[in-house]
Amino acid sequence: PNFWRAPTDNDRGNRMAERHAVWRQAAEHARVGGVRIRREVDETAFVQVDQTYPDAADTAGTLTYTFTPVGDIRVTFKVEPKGKGLASLPRVGLTMQIPLAYDQVTWLGRGPHESYADRKDAAFFGKYTLNARDFYFPYVEPQECGNRTDTLWVTFTDRTGKGIRVTGDPKINFGVLPYTAGELSARKHPWELNPCGNWIVTLDYG
Fold it and tell me: How far apart are CA 190 and CA 95, in angstroms?
């Protein structure tokens, strides 16, 4: 799970990083309360993980993976923020890493340029394809960038078409960068950024 994003230019004026700092490492410091595994007769397997987030008061969540015999993985994440004076969530979603070879990105959603919930009217709905390296924009100070909103599905493939496909239920936001959110937050200039060696993919409810 991921609750944090690197501040953007719009955020820096209202000190988003300070107001929402409680969420910065909430997922990293999560505690597992229990794991349940169930297998159906058709070989579908369910793995449910119950988690609490001590950094965020009494917040708790459930992460469920459903593995099907044909190789599909359905991921469901539910979280309930709870605690007096708890700041709103900057992000609700999942983060994963994929190989650098999966650099061909095609999606059905808003594009072709980046868009966010509060600025997406100029990003029109359609089918788009970009190289993953084109999702990063070198702002003067490194920050969150490259998000795409209202996405029905997105694929990350290599030059032969091998890769993965992610489908929303019904829609997601997504982004792909060579840098982690922590790296973007820690650096002051683009030339100081260190790629992590994989693509960092964010898949967000919002």
Answer: 22
Residues 30 and 39: their CA atoms lie apart, in Å, by 26
Tokens of 174: 């997504």
pLDDT at 13: 45
Buried b (16+ CB within 10 A) or exposed e, 2-17: bbbbbbbeebeeeebe
pTM as predicted: 0.88
- Cβ proximity of 110 and 149 under 8 Å: yes
Cβ pair 104, 11 in contact under 8 A: no
- Matching residue, tokens 């993953």: 132
What does residue 36 show for φ and ψ, rounded to 5 degrees? Answer: -120, 135
pLDDT tens sequence across 90-113: 889 999 999 999 999 999 999 999
